[in-house]
Amino acid sequence: MSKRRTFIQQLAMLVPVIPVWKILEFKDKSATKPITIATWDSGVEVNEAAWTVLSDGGKAIDAVEKGANFIENTINCCVGLGGNPDRDGFVTLDACIMDDKYNCGSVAFLQNIRNPISVARKIMETTPHVMLVGDGAKKFALSQGFKIEGKRLSKQAQKEYKNWLKTSQYKPTVNIEQTQSSKSKVPARLQDGSYNHDTMGIVAMDQNGDLSGACTTSGMGFKMHGRVGDSPIIGAGLYVDNAIGAATSSGQGEEVIRICGTHTVVEMMRLGKSPEEACRIAVERIVLINPEKARLFQVGFLALNKQGEYGAYAIQPGFNYAVKSNKDDGVIFKSDSYFK
Ligand code: ASP
Q1: Would the CB of 230 count as within 6 Å of ligand 1?
Q2: Is 99 touching ligand 1 by the criterion CB < 6 Å?
């Protein structure tokens, strides 16, 4: 390969194509269908991928899979094979997907397969089960034509792991999104072309008004080998009830599992709460278990109801999410939070 081409390719990594976007704190949070919303700043590009399906009249389930695949295929700390490993140096992936008819599929502790969300969808569509884990999940994936990949850690993960090994201490990190104010123009990607964010959750409503969602992650970095978080658990990391709404979460999975987080959010919407109120109630339920402890970790919920209204709430400031609809083109919102 010519030096010039290599140089241009390297340059392309440094100057990612960023859609026009802005951060809004106060705005009418509703849209007409179709609509897609996704966690974190990187959700802008996740939504773009999902939009290629939605704008063409495609189904929400295909859109959320496409959005999830997009982020799984990029190098970042927290989703896909490029993510940070567990304490023993293994990248283990968790993901789940749910459609508008209560069909759901989930995969946990999956290694060396690039697109866990697509494996989850295959489980949903071709097996009598909802969830497969570990070697069984991998065996199933291989039988479906998925390939073994990612035997080595990404460069970024190698660096992070080496750093972590210096102390080998496990402490939950409070995730604060890079972009903190509307004046900041920090792009969705870091300078080396990688993302810095957390679990990716996406919920979408298609032209038909049907809802679906997907959630995908490499889990908490430096977790115990075998640990599974909220992200592949239906009702914790993701829940969809096509009559009511859909919700997803990001953050300290153990705390989300404890309160069946996204199921709680959807149930609150069923009782008439707005998406943001429903997320706030779920966050408060976590915080009130132990308010002092809750200062040490982050959980953010994101929800969309059947009317196209959306909203989020987090424990700590710094939980952003992105929205794409015919009305909102690459908009990033800052979620309100329990601690200010
Ligand atoms: N929810 C993920 C987990 O607990 C990680 C995260 O979003 O920070 O595995």
Answers
A1: yes
A2: no
Q: Whose CA is nearest to atom 4 of ligand 1?
A: 253
Q: Which residues are part of the catalytic machinery?
A: 199
Q: Residue 126: CB partners within 8 Å, gap ≥ 6?
A: 144
* Site of tokens 């097996």: 127
Give me ligand 1 centre to Cα 250, in Å: 6
Query: Is residue 231 lining ligand 1, measured as CB closer than 6 Å?
Result: yes
Strands (E), the chain: 22-24, 35-39, 93-98, 104-110, 131-133, 200-205, 211-217, 238-241, 245-251, 299-305, 310-314, 320-325, 331-334, 336-337
Residue-range definition of the domain harbouring residue 48: 35-337
Q: Is there a domain that residue 285 lies in?
A: yes
Cβ partners under 8 Å of residue 244, min gap 6: 266, 269, 270, 305, 306
Return d(Cα 249, Cα 255) in angstroms, integer: 11
- This prediction has a pTM of 0.87
| Range scoring the smallest mean pLDDT among 6-15, 97-106, 123-132 | 6-15
pLDDT digits (tens, 9 = 90+) for 114-133: 999 999 999 999 999 999 99
Give residue 254 CA to ligand 1 midpoint distance, Å.
Answer: 8
Alpha carbon distance 303, 285 (integer Å): 16
Residue 27 pLDDT exceeds 80: no
Would the CB of 220 count as within 6 Å of ligand 1?
yes
The token pair that represents 203 in the structure block: 């919920």
Residue 15 lies inside a defined structural domain of this protein: no
What mean pLDDT is predicted for residues 18-41?
73
8 lies in some domain? no
Residue 215 covered by a domain: yes
Check: CB of residue 72 under 8 Å from CB of residue 80. Answer: yes
CATH code, domain carrying 211: 3.60.20.30
Domain count for the chain: 1
